[in-house]
Structure formats: C-alpha cells, structure tokens
C-alpha cells in the first residue's frame, strides 16, 4: 500500500511539472519557436549543444551498463576479483581527443554566429541613409520602453513597430538602471546599460507569431525592481510598405480631442500637469519630455495599458485611479491629485482618442 502511494505521488508530481512546462511554449513568447534569423541561429546553436550532450550521455550510459553487467558479482564467484588494469595509452588518448573534438564542434559555429550577430558595421557607415539600415534607439525606463526612430524624428513607447524581412538595428540604452531587451521569439537578449550603448540587429521573418496572435512579446530580462516582471512591450511587424505608411502617419499626427468630453479630458491633461511628463505627439518638439514618461501619441491603439492590461475603458480608469496597485514602484504614482469619477471619464475618453490610424 505504502509503495503504491509513493508511486502515485511521484506520478502526480510529474503530471504537474508537465502542465507547468507546457506554459513555456506560447509562440508569441517562446524562444523555441523562432520567428526570425537571429532566433533561428540561437535555436540551432541550442539544438547542436543538446545533441552533443545527448550523444555523450548515451555513450557513457551504454558503457556504464555494459560494465555493470559484465563485471557484476556472480553466484559462486563471490570472492573473484577481475584482472586489474592500470594505464592504457590508447584509451587515454581517445578520451582526451574526443572532448577536444566535441568542443570544436561546439565552438566553431558558436564563435562564427557571435561575430555575425554582433556585426553592426552599417550603423557606423559614413553618411548612412535611412534606406541603408533602419536604426531604432531603445531606452529602457522603470518600467516602460521608449522607441525612437532617429532617421524620421519619431518617438513612441510601449508598442515597437518594425518592418519584416530586413535587418533592424538597435541602439540599446538604460535611462535609470540596468534593464535587458529581449523579444524571445525573435532574438536577444542584450543589456540596456546606463553608461554605454549596446548594439545589435534582429530580423523579423513573420508578421505574426505562428499561432495567429496579433503581436510578439518583448520582455525586460534583467531584474530591475518590484515591477520587473511587468515591464513588457509588444512588437508589431509590418511589411515594409505598411511600415513606411505608419511612419508617415506618425510624422503627420497631431493630438486632437474629438468630443466635448475628450476636450474636457484634454484640459485636465494639462491642468493636472500630465503634459509635463507625457508627450502626446510622435514628433515632439521636446524630446526630453518624451523621455520622462511614455509618449502617449498612439495610446488609443496600443495593444495593452501599462504593458500588461487589455486596452479598454475599464482598465484605463483602473490605471489612472491607482497605478501603484497595478505596477508597484512606477513613477506616475503620487504625481497628480486623486481624480473624481467625472474627471476619470473625461481623461479616459481623451486618451482613447489618441490614435495615429484615423
Ligand atoms: Cu526592467 Cu527588469
């Protein structure tokens, strides 16, 4: 009975682990379902090293089992000691050379991939034109992401727009503490440091994750504070022509309040000094302002509120009412007076109207 119970316990533990591990496979968030050249290279390297390890484990296990069986103590020969062998040149050479070969098998592709992934020479090209390479400056803040397209003078936040099927080059910087930029399905990760700019490129082969999700997920991959796990961004990959259209729209958008209630919200936005930190136009005259807090120009069409909540009226109100409850340690908490219901309605309507796609 007792034995049966132990078995049952072990079985349920394994079942639970299977369930937990099954959560790691979402295509919009999984490094195991690569959606770009970089992620594919990283995946292939991972597979290569796993295969090498499995071969080593298999060979060692087979030899081990063979030895255990061959030299086991047999009935009637309890005192027999097998012939003792010490030192064998041939064997010693073999088991020194094999690991060296295995290391070479791992090292050659790894080093060549490292150089390929780190090649950002085109960013330094004299008189680089926007057509030569798309460059995006990423600044990571507690707990949000700023994306600047320096060739177009466009700044946005939280939703990263990129063209598909071409190399996109990134300058990565941390605005306050060290964060790390990671889009699991497409590649990474690389630290965003405060004292130097890290650079790399990514390629987005697919417009959408293979499960049909609307966008890829980006994560902060460096423990940076209480809301580190909530420091998400979304990636929208568009064919080049659509991406160009998006840039055009971004350059020509002005925040306008369409309804009376939205106008009231706009007024509150200025009176409660939201405007002091948040820019509402993608091309802002004051880039410093866009750097203090997320640029809200595309807020109405953002994938998520604060990176984590579905973008709907209820969640915007929730966020404005008590940001601390949603993202502990964020910098918006206590920067404005409590809003009453009417003010919340007006601000929500104004924010929902901030869109580039009209
Ligand atoms: Cu930013 Cu973790």
Automatic annotation (TrEMBL):
Residues 131-249 form the Cytochrome oxidase subunit II copper A binding domain. The keyword Glycoprotein does not apply. Residues 260-355 form the Cytochrome c domain. Its cofactor is Cu cation. Pfam families: COX2, COX2_TM, Cytochrom_C. Residues 23-121 form the Cytochrome oxidase subunit II transmembrane region profile domain. It is a multi-pass membrane protein. Binds a copper A center. Keywords: Copper, Electron transport, Heme, Iron, Membrane, Metal-binding, Respiratory chain, Translocase, Transmembrane, Transmembrane helix, Transport. Its EC number is 7.1.1.9. It comes from the Bacteria. SUPFAM superfamilies: Cupredoxins (SSF49503), Cytochrome c (SSF46626), Cytochrome c oxidase subunit II-like, transmembrane region (SSF81464). It is found in: Cell membrane; Membrane. InterPro entries: CcO_II (IPR045187), CcO_II-like_C (IPR002429), Copper_CuA (IPR001505), Cupredoxin (IPR008972), Cyt_c-like_dom (IPR009056), Cyt_c-like_dom_sf (IPR036909), Cyt_c_oxidase_su2 (IPR014222), Cyt_c_oxidase_su2_TM_dom (IPR011759). Subunits I and II form the functional core of the enzyme complex. Electrons originating in cytochrome c are transferred via heme a and Cu(A) to the binuclear center formed by heme a3 and Cu(B). NCBIfam families: CoxB. Belongs to the cytochrome c oxidase subunit 2 family. This is Cytochrome c oxidase subunit 2. The gene is coxB.
């Amino acid at each position: 009975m007792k034995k049966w119970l132990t078995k049952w316990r072990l079985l349920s533990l394994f079942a639970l682990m299977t369930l937990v591990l099954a959560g790691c496979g979402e295509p919009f968030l999984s490094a195991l379902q690569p959606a770009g050249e970089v992620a594919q290279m990283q995946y292939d390297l991972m597979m290569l090293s796993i295969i090498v390890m499995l071969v080593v484990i298999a060979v060692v296990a087979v030899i081990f089992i063979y030895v255990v069986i061959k030299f086991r103590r047999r009935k009637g020969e309890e005192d027999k000691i097998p012939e003792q062998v010490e030192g064998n040149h041939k064997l010693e050479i073999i088991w020194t050379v094999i690991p060296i070969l295995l290391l070479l098998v791992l090292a050659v592709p790894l080093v060549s991939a490292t150089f390929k992934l780190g090649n950002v020479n085109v960013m330094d090209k004299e008189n680089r034109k926007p057509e030569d390479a798309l460059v995006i400056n990423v600044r990571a803040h507690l707990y949000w992401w700023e994306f600047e397209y320096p060739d177009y003078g466009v700044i946005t936040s939280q939703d990263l727009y990129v063209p598909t099927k071409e190399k996109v080059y990134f300058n990565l910087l941390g605005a306050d503490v060290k964060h790390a930029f990671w889009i699991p399905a497409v590649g990474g990760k690389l630290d965003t440091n405060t004292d130097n700019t890290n650079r790399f490129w990514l390629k987005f082969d697919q417009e959408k994750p293979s499960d049909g999700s609307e966008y890829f997920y980006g994560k902060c991959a460096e423990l940076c504070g209480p809301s580190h796990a909530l420091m998400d961004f979304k990636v929208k990959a568009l064919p080049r022509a659509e991406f160009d259209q998006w840039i055009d729209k971004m350059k020509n958008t002005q925040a306008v309040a369409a309804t009376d209630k939205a106008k009231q919200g706009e007024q509150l936005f200025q009176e409660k000094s939201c405007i002091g930190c948040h820019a509402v136009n993608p091309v802002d005259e004051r880039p410093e302002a866009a750097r203090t807090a997320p640029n809200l120009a595309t807020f109405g069409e953002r994938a998520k509120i604060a990176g984590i909540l579905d973008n709907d009226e209820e969640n915007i109100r929730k966020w404005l009412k008590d940001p601390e409850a949603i993202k502990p340690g964020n910098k918006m908490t206590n920067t404005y007076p409590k809003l009453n219901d009417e003010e919340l309605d007006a601000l929500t309507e104004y924010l929902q109207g901030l869109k580039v796609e009209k």
